[in-house]
Structure prediction request, 112 residues.
Amino acid sequence: MTAAALAIVSVCEICNLAGQLFFKHAMGDLWHRARARAWLALGAGVGVMAASFFLWMGLLPQGALSQLYPFEALTRILLLGAAGLFFREKITPQLWAGVALISAGIVIVAVS
Prediction:
């Protein structure tokens, strides 16, 4: 995988993460408190998820799907940390074990 493709994968995953955070923010208690702000957060989520989608479509011709797709798991790892940081969600040992397994899988695929 080229450095440019790796950079695009990184941006794609960050957009995916941001989209999920915007969706959670919009559909949480913000939806009941400030509907106009919730619509803005929802729109931002759709926008960054669309950017992620189009970046991903641009990546597909550049590499094997079997090498690109495992990077999608990075979003789950980053989302776990972001949920704890931004939404004060409790991260259990089982979740950390899952992160370790996902990380091991990404490493195995990356070195193959």
